[in-house]
Amino acid sequence: MRTGEAQPAWVFVAGLGCSQLLFAWAADDRKSRNWLDSEFLDALLQAEADYLSERAAQRRLGDP
Questions:
Q1: d(CA 28, CA 19)
Q2: How distant is the alpha carbon of residue 62 from its chain centre?
Q3: Which of 13, 14, 33, 48 has a C-alpha 20 to 30 A away from that of 22?
Q4: What is the C-alpha to C-alpha distance for residues 28 and 11, in angstroms, rounded to an integer?
Q5: CA pair distance 11, 29, nearest whole angstrom
Q6: What is the pLDDT of residue 1?
Q7: Rounded distance, CA 43 to CA 25, Å?
Q8: For residues 51 and 19, is the Cβ–Cβ distance under 8 A?
Q9: What's residue 31's pLDDT?
Q10: 34 vs 42: CA distance, rounded Å
């Protein structure tokens, strides 16, 4: 929705194990199509992968 109007939403929040970051995703209802959507899962996995890639690069540069 792009009207700027506030809408109620259900929010999924997860603590990501390796990165210890929080991930949040909002949907308009609790139907499984929103939570099992590949875009949702891709975003969740990408957040963790980005962190792991960044940490690997830091280690190559000698950062603890």
A1: 28
A2: 28
A3: 33
A4: 9
A5: 9
A6: 55
A7: 9
A8: yes
A9: 83
A10: 13
Could you tell me if residue 31 is left (phi over 0), alpha (psi between -120 and 50 degrees) or otherwise beta? Answer: beta
Give the pair of three-digit tokens for residue 57: 């690069």
Six-digit token string for 8: 């109620």
The type of residue at 17 is: G
The residue type found at 54 is E
Q: Which two tokens stand for residue 6?
A: 């506030």
- CA neighbours within 13 Å on the CB side: how many for 12? 17
Backbone angles phi, psi at 29, to 5 degrees: -155, 180
The token pair that represents 27 in the structure block? 């949907």
- Cα 49 to its chain centre, rounded Å, is 10
Per-residue pLDDT of the chain (64 residues; tens, 9 = 90+): 578 888 888 888 888 777 777 888 888 888 877 777 767 778 778 888 888 888 888 888 876 6
